[in-house]
Amino acid sequence: EAGARSKTISNVRATLAKLLASAVEWGVLPAMPKLPRVKVEDPPWDFLTGDEAALLLDGARDDSERLLLAFAMSTGCRAGELLALTHGDINLPAGLVTFRKSASWGVVGPTKSGRERRVPLTGTLRAALAPRMGAPEALVFTRADGTALKLDDLHTILWRACRAAGLRKIRFHDLRHTFASALVAANVPLRQVQAWLGHSSLRLVERYAHLAPHQHVGLIRAVEFGASGSLTAATTVPTLN
After folding, report:
1. Predicted confidence (pLDDT) per residue in 181-216, tens digit
2. pTM here?
3. Of 214, 171, 209, 175, whose CA–CA distance to 193 is shortest?
4. What φ, ψ does residue 68 adopt, rounded to 5°?
5. Are 199 and 117 in contact (CB under 8 A)?
6. Is 208 exposed, middle or buried (0-12, 13-18, 19+ CB in 10 A)?
7. Contact assessment for residue 18 and residue 43, using Cβ atoms and an 8 Å cutoff
8. SS3 state of residue 6
9. Is the sign of the CA dihedral 156, 159, 163, 164 positive or negative?
10. How far from 61 is each of 48, 148, 163, CA to CA, in Å?
């Protein structure tokens, strides 16, 4: 379709490929047709600095909404993972949360990657969650009446806090970017950030690499071969004949 985003086209292609593969498996098609590759450009993204994150939490309407926002920024969970999170997914003694399912349009299924992942809980989160723990099958985050939240509810909570804090309007997914950006800025290895985010490719994490500008300064000292003073600003490289 004209004007469709490359990501949308890629998703449609992936769905079509699965349908065609099934058709081949069922004997409806003799062979899998060759589909064109789609180059997906990285979409624009935003994140909050540490000071902005603090302002956002101060702008939350109540403790429940403050905990929800803090949880998203401190674990890097996707919106669907937060919506499907139950108390049984949280191990307070071990200080871990396991993301094993995701909710979309009220339907609970596996995570986006299809794999479980574990993320450590900060001490602040553990302290805030402890008095709220309930039955293992009960949802951690709900509406005031105990019913399940929807994606629109998450955006309402976030944008209300943004307005109260005087911050720009960001997407709920940008809280996930805030989690990753804070880790990289603290020089947490990209492989570890990748594991906590649940990305299959390191390439998706490398978008944050520029946020650790001083990381490589210390590493490059491993090849400081002229540190003894044998090299000076006047050193020249001889011409080879």
Report:
1. 898 888 888 888 889 998 777 666 666 666 665 555
2. 0.73
3. 209
4. -60, -45
5. no
6. buried
7. no
8. helix
9. positive
10. 19, 19, 11
